[in-house]
Amino acid sequence: MSFRVTVLGAGSIGVFVGGKLAAAGADVTFVGRPRILDEITAHGLRLTDLDGHDVRVQPTAFHTATEPSGDADLVLIAVKSAGTAAAAEELVGVLKPGTVVISLQNGIGNDAVIREILPTCVVLAGMVMFNVVQHGGGHFHRGTTGSVEIADDPVLNRFAPVFKASGLGFDRRADLLSIQWAKLLLNLNNPINALSGRPLREELGTRDYRRCLALTQREALTVMAHARIRPARLTPVPPELMTRLLTVPDGMFQRVAGKVLAIDPVARSSMADDLAAGRKTEIAWLCGEIVTLGTLVDVPTPVNRRLVQLVTAAENGDRRTWSGAELLAELRAAARGGAANRG
């Protein structure tokens, strides 16, 4: 049985997920920026991935709008975290009570923000575990592995057949919060990738950049441990072991953790795309989340704090591209300074 879906935030992730649902038979309406809406209306959608799938969705198979309407059975919010409250406010007085709203956003706690603004809706947390690249002309490409994860709830039963037919996974999780924290750990690479100026596969294939990520993740894991947060295991090795594995020489890393590099050669992080487009990034909801948690549990976070500073400076036009050696030296200096201040 078909149902009506509103995708609020028709960017790369929103269009890819909504397009897959449309291809599976859902009645999808994209709400977003005119640039993307005009593009997909003119060209339709071509949805490809690194596994070789190639799905075409004609413009007649979906709708576009500049603002949401009240006839949706399911709303997927896929805006950047900074726009969460504003997006939810657009839905006030529009949605029917009981409408299912899923946050498909990075960071922790966006669903709580939405739930406070839309108390009569069923608001669920979700996570998109893959990266999507825009190639223009309505072509959106999934460049990494992963599925869509959602906090489990009986209201999802209605949508399950179309979710399954979409091929997106839509895994229902009893404990999504641990997955959100684990995804945040992985997303701590986003600022490193953005500052590297390189595609993800090339950046992660370079030892000094991986050392930067290891420093960042190790600090985050320390903070999480003090806060009694146990992230889920999303990679073949546990997070604590991965921070050590990241630091080994390139050849050994390729042999031992080759699946980490199963990434399309042109894929970049969304933060890299944001910097390139002159948009504000989600750094406050990634490294900034670790800094905030560290303050709450009285654990210093100089490495994540320094990354926040560097990305914020890049947003404002300062230096954007760092070699692996330069960025590693910068973060190690921050770590030493934090340890000295702590002493």
- Main sheet makeup: 8 strands, mixed
Mean pLDDT: 93
What's the N-to-C terminus distance? 63 Å
Beta-strand fraction estimate: 15-25%
What strand line-up does the widest sheet have?
Answer: 5-2-1-6-7-8-11-12
Number of helices: 15
Quickly give the structural class.
Answer: alpha/beta
Computed over alpha carbons, the radius of gyration is 20 Å
Q: Give the H and E element order.
A: EHEHEEEEHEHEEEEHEHHHHHHHHHH
Helix content: 40-55%
Query: What is the strand tally?
Result: 12
**Oligomerization category of the chains in this entry:** single chain
Describe the structure.
With 343 residues, this protein is an alpha/beta fold. The chain is 45% helix and 16% strand. It has 15 helices and 12 strands. The chain has helices at 12-23, 34-43, 84-91, 110-117, 160-166, 176-187, 189-196, 200-204, 207-226, 239-245, 250-256, 270-276, 287-297, 302-315, 324-342; strands at residues 4-8, 27-31, 45-49, 54-57, 63-65, 74-77, 100-104, 122-128, 132-136, 139-142, 148-151, 171-173. The protein has an 8-stranded mixed β-sheet with strand order 5-2-1-6-7-8-11-12, with helices on both faces.
